[in-house]
Amino acid sequence: MNPIYQNLKTYFGYDSFRPGQEKIITSILSGRDALGIMPTGAGKSLCYQIPALTFPGLTLVVSPLISLMEDQVAALKRRGIGAEFINSAVDINRKQRILSNISAQYSCNPPAYIRRTSSSSSSAFHRCYKSTPIKLLYVSPERLSAPEFRAFAQKIRISLLCVDEAHCISLWGRQFRPEYMKIADFIESLPVRPVVAAFTATANAEVRSDIIDNLKLREPYVLTTGFDRPNLYFEVQKVKDKWPALSSLLTRHRGECGIIYCLTRRTVESLSRKLEVNGFTVTHYHGAMPLEEREKAQRDWLGGKRNVIVATNAFGMGIDKPDVRFVIHYNMPGSMENYYQEAGRAGRDGLPSDCIILYNYRDVVINRFFISYAGIMPGDMVKGGEHRSVSIIEGVYVAIDNDVDLDELRAHERRKLAAMQRFVAGDVCLRQYMLGYFGEHAPSYCGKCSRCLSLIPFGQHQTSLIPDVESPDLYSELRALRLRLSRKYDILPHKIFPDKILHVFARARPRSVPAMLLIEGINFVSVFRYGREFVEEIRLFVETN
Ligand code: ADP
Ligand code: MG
After folding, report:
1. Where does 232-365+415-453 sit in CATH, by number?
2. Which range scores top for mean pLDDT: 62-76, 226-240, 454-468?
3. What is the chain's mean pLDDT, rounded?
4. Neighbour count for residue 376 (Cβ, 10 Å)
5. SS3 (DSSP) at 468
6. Which of 151, 244, 386, 396 is most buried (most C-beta within 10 Å)?
7. Closest residue (by CA) to atom 12 of ligand 1?
8. What CATH number does domain 3-224 carry, 3.90.320.10, 1.10.150.20, 3.40.50.720, 3.40.50.300?
9. Atom 19 in ligand 1: which residue has the minimum CA distance?
């Protein structure tokens, strides 16, 4: 069997690659640089994690956020893949241990104590790292400028250097990070140039050429997969008073998981209070909340204790919750880039999900105000340099390089806002406009957005999220059971069974554990652990109905 398929199955449990993954993996393994432009949720990580397993040397992953690194490394470890991260939050002892393990594994010149006697070398080697060999090391971009790290990197064998969220290198991307500009310099300091692969979800042509130029990619294989997310329904509502529109949307989506994005912290606070008063259970998140509160809000939402989170655009980067059924923009965001990224958090499991913007002219005014008067937090003022940095976040330009021409930046932000306004106020198919904005050609009718559907006589809209013959009652019973189990065993609900599988249960009504094992894509471990309880629930439902 082709080793990349073997690794896909053994380590990740998947049978097939998603569009583009195999091509870019094969190309990286052949030693060619690569640039992968794939939408959020398309599976970019796999494109460098699989080569990392095959390459003889270390794979160094440059990633902009501590939380992203931690999530990825934890996920890799769960899959039995050796991975570590080093950032300002890792204490010195741990850092030393990780670096010396890696040195022992990949040293161009093995350490003296290994070289001393060849007979004892293997045991000394194993004493260095008893656990799984470290195949991937995640670092922040600023780490690459640290002299100790450079000295370390020069002595080991690095096969692949991967730049995740590579749009951070471009001033015209959404999240400029000055430290990304120094990556090319780091690569040049290495005795042997590794394969360099960059990944981003930003398809904009300026950003693409900035990545290739600034990272000095050598004739990279460029992969662009489609930006369309066919399972997402897009809608724009122009409303004077947003409250009635919002509460009717939430009533329709009761019990489902969703995000409500607002432009300001104040709106987040007042709206979440109003929702609570009106009987909706929500949590909220913005940058001015104390860290513990933010973490708790995130945990409650991720764990399904609170289905809905009201947040500013400070929330969401690195969040990979598969069953988000709706993303509502209570205010129009400032750019199509922001919108696509935020709305794209819906429906990662491929099930139908709704993305809705409630907008009125006040939103334009707020965005204009941000662009003109937003405070500026220069790059070197961001503590540790590892904090989230978006060009405008909660009304502040964050991590802006000191040399940036602010007038030019503002003019650029105004152009982006104008494109966003044309999206909400125009009359063309929302999907066509959005894909066109990201440089893709699309038909003028998608049939799955409010503009296209407004052409169909009312009543024929296909808005139901649930397949025809399925029992919605059983589905909600199964969801309730899953939530109980999730609390009992302290495990995330979708880790027990994702929504997709619960839908199949509700439709196919398996009456035994073995019958469950026949369901395509089902996680066997979950079947053995929790299957019986679901079988009981289904039986009970069938008997009482
Ligand atoms: P991105 O970085 O492009 O936003 P991720 O790499 O975080 O996306 O992947 C998103 C999700 O898709 C993850 O849960 C991942 O496990 C899943 N995934 C990736 N590749 C595949 C595949 N070939 N088959 C099934 N699921 C996949
Ligand atoms: Mg990613």
Report:
1. 3.40.50.300
2. 226-240
3. 85
4. 13
5. coil
6. 386
7. 43
8. 3.40.50.300
9. 43
